[in-house]
Task: inverse folding
């Protein structure tokens, strides 16, 4: 029996003025969340009810997928993270602390190491594999720029799962089961989402998928088509549509371009189109411990370098834009004046496929304030390797033959075939069918639980407040006696609460002695799927049902209410499926 | 459908040799828990199933008590803890860390401050009160001596709840509801426990209760009687049974007692009974900021000082045994030679009631190596205040008229009327019925969730392994086909799993192709209430049911199994109630 007068729902007329995202604004105004510190939130009772419903859906789907729940500590010994190499690699995002005896710990942002350790000490034979374990847990990440409420915070709840297999077939079985479970979870939660090809580093193959919910405030660019293709920008490719230019090669000339440091400035100074200018960027590729290789990447002036594609081509550990000092050392100029002409063999030169068809390009002259015009491949400069090193652009043709579209997305899930990296480093081996010791092959799987609330709110909220899909709404029905001081209205509210509760619905009764306008506004803010208003017609046994999502209202006799609620909630669920 | 071959249950023949507690040993051996670091544990799938059942019971009872669940972050700004004064007071037990911008945080061991802050900013009027909020959350405590497995760890799950009221009646209402909920929870979990009066500091009154589970490894001493009296040692009192001694006061004499620093040494040196010697202990009582009062406490040589009682009498913030320097400064001797004779007015003298009836006592002479004999109250020394300042002893008569017994106990819960301390410090006020701003009156309530597993295991485990009450057992029934290679046995196991699952029971099937002895031993270790063995008589449709707790076995036809399981589980639950 949930009475609004006794539950903590501190609704507000206004959100702080610096709040940008709709989900953030409405969750604060509706009394769902409270900020304890920048990026650190408290989930008030309504938000926590939503979280619990999401958790329940996750648990049911993990059960079906044969995964077992367990729980790791948040406090993890630094030693374990040093063994995996992530203690350094994770950088400033990792919270570090020491205990009273100066032993060092980190607060877990993910748990690959600790699961690998437990499995290493627990499983000795392939007979127990494949095996999937998961947890629903608060994670910690020292975010540089926490924002959008609980969308990007320093402490947040995640589902993180890990599969262990003795062979590739076992890994694939677990991966496919998890992929199916993830689809089921996001479907049931009522999210619109795209499954996108994600970059999987140097491993290659289709072994990584992201689940992304389209939303204006999403921080990822999703590349997709109406044909079903979807990839993130790092991974997306398009059909090559370059046409060989046919002009005669002209004489290479050096021209002064004072103050022209960008492609656009150079284009204006030289009076040519940006697409005819070579964008030349020098990177330092980390090939190993203290082993850095300078790499010059060339592309059309109107294209963007895709560092992930370059990284994968080079097979390097890390790729950084060269410092001014490195640019001066290897090319003798500032970054705004670099180009390929005259570059020595010590610098590797990669060029995007679209460069191959250009004739008489302009490029930096490796001499501050000067550009070359009429530069041509082979005649004037060397290219070591052509390839796809650029970001795709909207309108290009995707591999599926359809034109590419862009949208912003919130990453809500990620599944990934990890391989044996952690197993090797931590010595997690099992005996395979042939009695040989082999490294366990891992997969890792994650869903942002609290972030999912933001995603759902972004997709569904309107200017009046939140709108929850019934599957995760804090309550199914919001019962509002217009005047709680009138005994007959409160009696009817209590009766209706009883009826609906017995029928299996969760009901919140607004028993507050507030004005009707305040109660209706709060109801819209809170976003429960159905509102039952008990007003003047209560005497005739008639109430009004309002559908939060559409604003439609219908009058119903009390005797028909349970039935009507069932029909309306079913219709809403069906519509939500149709919308996808 | 839970098959043992695919669930992570790494049973072990041996626990590490340094393991002391039975619960610790058996939880490690049965594959329930894995130590990630000293005092930091991972809960493997079986343990997590038990935890989830405990959580479910807690949620149901909190619901009934009208409390709402929410969730605070573990990362709390240090600033908030400085405001409440606990940043220093909590000492080394508090984990402290800084983020990338050098902002300071603590990892929450409890959450009084943050709940007070949220309520302060959310509730303005008494109309919303009383209100109870709670969370089920991992807590952090930098334990100096983590031990007994998950009984005393650095990261552990707790239920912590907080009530807020506008007046004492509201506080009492919430407190009583929580007390009832706690009793229901511990009853349902199947624990034997005692509700004991706990010290509530200087507030006075019956406003604090501890729930303690008797167990050998318990770190608290519980004082109780068969009449129902129970208190912790700090709080326990007994009926005064002293008899006025009738000897004539003799002449005060100073005697050399070389090398006698303890009561026993003095008794031997003087040839008298320890009960005739005054134990004289000098304390420094902190009355305020930089305000310390020396206090000499006198009691019979065979009694122990109860510092909590002394603290409450003095109303001081803190009580410390005086240093050698302070003993020399105020009494002119070492701590082993102190006494009340000749002590000036600057030292307050408290004496236990049992001192009042003594005649011709011996006591330290405030002169190293000397004692007085035949010291008498008033004639030879002053007493400023008599009172009950000692620990009770076994066999004494409790306030309820029954003889006192001692047992060790594990503190599993605590409820406490906090008052307005936090509200005052953080400015959490509401308007009361008369329109006046008043401090919210708080109560706080806590249950150690993971610790409860240790308590249940301590009370129920035997030399073969764990024994779980059915209400929180990871499964209800353990189905064991003796030879999983035999198709007929596996088929029957699967049939039985289906039948029992449909009847609402949770079933674990040991489908491993291990020897029967291994499977039976593991089954005893894991401690599921009922074991169904499918062996030779399977061909006749007969299985054996074994009750883990008693070891009894019965043969049952498969057709009768569901029925039998229901009856046996009900009997076990009833016995558990009778046992209390």
Result:
């Amino acid at each position: 029996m949930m009475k609004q007068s006794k539950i903590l729902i501190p609704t507000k007329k206004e959100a702080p003025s610096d709040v940008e995202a709709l989900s953030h604004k409405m969750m604060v105004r509706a009394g769902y969340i409270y900020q304890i510190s920048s990026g650190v939130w408290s989930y008030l009772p309504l938000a926590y009810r939503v979280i619990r419903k999401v958790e329940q859906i996750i648990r049911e789907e993990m059960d079906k997928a044969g995964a077992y729940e367990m729980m790791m500590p948040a406090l993890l010994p630094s030693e374990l993270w040093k063994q995996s190499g992530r203690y350094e690699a994770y950088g400033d995002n990792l919270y570090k602390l020491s205990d009273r005896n100066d032993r060092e710990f980190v607060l877990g942002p993910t748990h690959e190491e600790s699961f690998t350790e437990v499995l290493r000490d627990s499983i000795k034979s392939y007979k127990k594999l494949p095996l999937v374990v998961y947890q629903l847990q608060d994670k910690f990440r020292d975010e540089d720029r926490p924002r959008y409420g609980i969308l990007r915070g320093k402490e947040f709840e995640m589902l993180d799962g890990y599969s262990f297999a003795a062979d590739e077939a076992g890994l694939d079985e677990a991966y496919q089961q998890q992929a199916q479970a993830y689809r089921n979870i996001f479907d049931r939660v009522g999210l619109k989402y795209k499954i996108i090809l994600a970059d999987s580093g140097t491993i290659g193959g289709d072994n990584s998928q992201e689940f992304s919910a389209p939303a204006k405030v999403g921080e990822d660019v999703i590349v997709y088509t109406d044909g079903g293709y979807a990839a993130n920008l790092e991974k997306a490719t398009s059909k090559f549509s370059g046409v060989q230019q046919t002009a005669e090669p002209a004489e290479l000339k050096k021209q002064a371009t004072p103050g022209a440091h960008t492609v656009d400035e150079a284009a204006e100074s030289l009076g040519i189109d940006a697409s005819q200018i070579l964008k030349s960027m020098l990177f330092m590729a980390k090939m190993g411990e203290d082993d850095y290789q300078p790499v010059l990447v060339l592309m059309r002036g109107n294209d963007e370098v895709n560092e992930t594609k370059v990284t994968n081509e080079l097979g390097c550990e890390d790729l950084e834009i060269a410092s001014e000092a490195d640019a001066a050392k290897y090319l003798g100029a500032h970054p705004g004046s670099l180009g390929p002409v005259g570059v020595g063999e010590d610098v590797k030169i990669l060029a995007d496929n679209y460069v191959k068809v250009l004739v008489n390009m302009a490029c930096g002259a490796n001499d501050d304030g000067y550009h070359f015009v009429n530069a041509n491949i082979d005649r004037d400069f060397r290219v070591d390797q052509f390839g796809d090193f650029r970001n795709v652009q909207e309108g290009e043709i995707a591999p599926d033959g359809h034109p590419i579209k862009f949208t912003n997305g919130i990453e809500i899930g990620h599944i990934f075939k990890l391989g044996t990296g952690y197993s090797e480093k931590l010595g997690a081996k099992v005996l395979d069918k042939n009695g040989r010791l082999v490294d366990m092959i891992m997969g890792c799987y994650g869903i942002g639980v609290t972030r999912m609330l933001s995603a759902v709110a972004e997709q569904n909220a309107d200017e009046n407040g939140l709108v929850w899909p019934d599957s995760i709404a804090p309550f199914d029905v919001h019962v509002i006696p217009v005047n709680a001081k009138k005994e007959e209205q409160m009696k009817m509210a209590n009766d209706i609460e009883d009826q609906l509760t017995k029928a299996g619905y969760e009901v919140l009764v607004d028993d507050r002695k507030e004005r009707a306008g305040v109660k209706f506004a709060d109801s819209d803010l809170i976003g429960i799927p159905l509102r039952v208003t008990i007003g003047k017609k209560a005497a005739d046994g008639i109430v009004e049902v309002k559908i939060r999502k559409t604003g439609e209202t219908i009058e119903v006799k009390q005797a028909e209410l349970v039935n009507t609620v069932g029909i309306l909630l079913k219709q809403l669920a069906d519509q939500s499926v149709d919308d996808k």
Q: What stands out?
A: Chain A touches chain B through 59 residues (CB under 8 Å). DSSP finds 14 helices and 30 strands in chain A.
